[in-house]
Amino acid sequence: MKCVRCKGKGIIYLKRHNAAFCQDCFLYYYNNQVKKNIKKHRMFDKKDKILVVISGGKDSMALWHILAKEGYNVTGMYINLGIGQYSDKSQQVVESFAQKNGLELIVKDIKKEYGLDIYKLSKLLKRSTCSVCGSIKRYLFNKIAYDGGFSAVATGHNLDDEAATLLGNVLSWEEGYLARQSPVLESIHPKLVKKVKPLYTLTERENLFYVLINKIEFLHDECPHAVGARSIMYKDVLNRLEEESPGTKQRFITSFLEKGRKHFQDVYEKVELKECSICGQVTTTDVCSFCRFVRLSNQNTEN
Ligand code: FES
Ligand code: ZN
């Protein structure tokens, strides 16, 4: 296996590109992909303040590392969601990386700061913990970015995540979600901060290689609630397709972005947005779900 670029000894073979790379040329390829994605979708530039959402897993750690290394103005943001040991371990990994590399980091703890418990809320609301957790995270990413004057919120979503989400949304024609699925989601309200996914063309395996080569510490465990999640089943199915026909995931995403998404764009742009009567953040209802969660948690402790 020879490196396609320098003809040295290849250490990683990327089937969908029919190409092997040595360590240095892999890093060159990885860097190029990230730069290309940022430029192609006009995600941000060196003048922008970017809030990077960090979970402590390989994808977000890779994103934080590469953006900082490339000289972007990045601040990490970690939310402790109160998921037992998983949250404690990931917070440690994230804090130690920030400290070792002299990087800015914002840490929020939903229990200590807002009195929120995703397990109690999911019982009270009869919603899955993942869905409660997702609403809280989306709210806080945007609020902290908006309050802190950031121009974009960047997440470590990779090609496998994006293809699995797309498959799930296509299977039930979730028009609202399809409208929002994009590597860059421009703001449609002055209080909504732009969302970007610079790693959307890189796979989980490529992100793993990147963190291993750069000796970046990361949390190997997945969130315990991911077990049995539909997204894992979609990833399995897509992996089987990819095995038979390399490049399937990338084609699925790029052709959707080029030809499919425009049919749903109106759905995104036409949602009626309001400002929450309690916190002032953007919502589609009178009181946003985060404020309802806080209210519900307080009522429950008072009773
Ligand atoms: Fe939110 Fe797993 S990270 S439930
Ligand atoms: Zn609110």
Q: Topology, please?
A:
Elements lengths: L11 E3 L4 E3 L1 H18 L8 E5 L4 H12 L3 E8 L3 H18 L2 E6 H5 L3 H8 L3 H19 L4 E3 L4 H13 L3 H6 L3 E2 L8 E3 L7 H10 L16 H15 L3 H13 L4 H5 L4 E2 L6 E2 L5 H14 L1
Parallel strand pairs: 3-4, 3-6, 4-5, 6-8
Antiparallel strand pairs: 1-2, 7-8, 9-10
Keywords: 4Fe-4S, ATP-binding, Iron, Iron-sulfur, Magnesium, Metal-binding, Nucleotide-binding, Transferase, Zinc
Cofactor: Mg(2+); [4Fe-4S] cluster
Protein name: Phosphoadenosine phosphosulfate reductase
Report on the structure:
- The protein is α/β, with parallel strands linked by helices and 303 residues long.
- It has one domain (40-302): Rossmann fold (3-Layer(aba) Sandwich).
- It is 51% helix and 12% strand.
- It has a 6-stranded mixed beta sheet, sandwiched between helices. It has a two-stranded antiparallel sheet with strand order 1-2. Strands 9-10 form a two-stranded antiparallel sheet.
- The longest helix is centred in the middle third of the chain and has 19 residues, at 129-147.
- The chain starts with 11 loop residues before the first strand and ends with a helix.
- 35% of the residues are buried.
